[in-house]
């Protein structure tokens, strides 16, 4: 007699984010890279970030929900097993501070740090609230067709409907802005949670490609995600589309920064994000 | 015979950022809180962030200049001595990844983590570059008077010339935006470097005060600074004014985020910054 996996556990994102607690080592978890989220020379960074958050969510001592997450990509993960260490270094009344790292064995079997990070989780209370950056008025997701699947493997795990600033068709150096807007969600659709939201915050292709209309080597060095939504709000968003918006601010001597906002279809800001990205030439 | 301190070492910022290497403990530095940068219940967070960067700059194994810095305020520092630990966890060909922490003894003398962080330093090479967020056209600093010194002690260490969104005069709940623009520099003027720039990125008062025109308890939980300038560009900026711009994006259930940009008078983007801030009520 065989047991079917539940619909949720069979989603590729849930497969990619599966972690096993290491017995006798609090906060230590074993994971495996997933071929479905492979990028050019390592896993999609959004899933790496979500894996670190997963370790926090699995930790028995966790207080509250994600508030902020910073992930630094020190080196590309190679295919195979990795170890996450998540340490709650300080727990206050309503906030908890985490340090994070990913280790992988090198060719000689010695552990090497591939990724570092910090996070804050928090118990949130209802307060005066206001959105001060309204969602742009755009064509609804339902009125647009998703783009054909293409490129590196992880991109196929997302349904994307570009509104502005799609990946250039011709790399002719004519770019004049760095703003992308698109509707996006997991493919196949999966109910939104903090893990999926984290990965979605890193979906945007490198701004330098758009600004220059030139495809140069580029990779995220550090990303920060600020979570503005509660778990119930993510659950209510369900498998709906998110409007993602990203733009660069400064491209200077090998690195640019990017700011991003993610709203649900109801216009609620779920997360904001920033990253600094290496580029060549 | 007495020796006069050099002009630089007598600046309050340099006093506040003085660290002493702990013999036999690589990357460990002892510092002291400085009364000149005192906030309400601890030191000005910008100086705490700059102290962490100082530990990196003093570290004998450092590669390159600051690229990104994330600081998480886990608990207020108390007056007196503190210990910084700066660890270069991974050094690549042109980037280096750091983990950071500040420890202070609690009432029983046991070390407690007050602050965590990560940073990336990098060797930067000349590449194609462009500023994609031009400096707003504003009244030059020289045409404005600095505001009178006021409030908590650290504010007196900065010369500020507000252009837009000054601290409200009346707390009557009539706020309708969260954008502040001001010219700013150290007081007394001090040649700009990465340390001063880091602290300046945190000068902005809590956006929630402006958005609500209501003064509620608020404090930074986590700040990230991305550095876009080289050391030579900071040196060329000298004691000139910086245009700082900050705005909130989402105020939701006890936390808001803030994005900020810092340009020099010549219009060069020197740093961008983001933070997530706790607020009450």
From TrEMBL, chains A, B:
InterPro entries: ACOT8-like_C, Acyl-CoA_hotdog, HotDog_dom_sf, Sec_Metab_Biosynth-Assoc, TesB_ACOT8-like_N. Coiled coil: none annotated. Residues 35-118 form the Acyl-CoA thioesterase-like N-terminal HotDog domain. Residues 147-278 form the Acyl-CoA thioesterase-like C-terminal domain. This is Acyl-CoA thioesterase. It comes from Acidovorax soli.
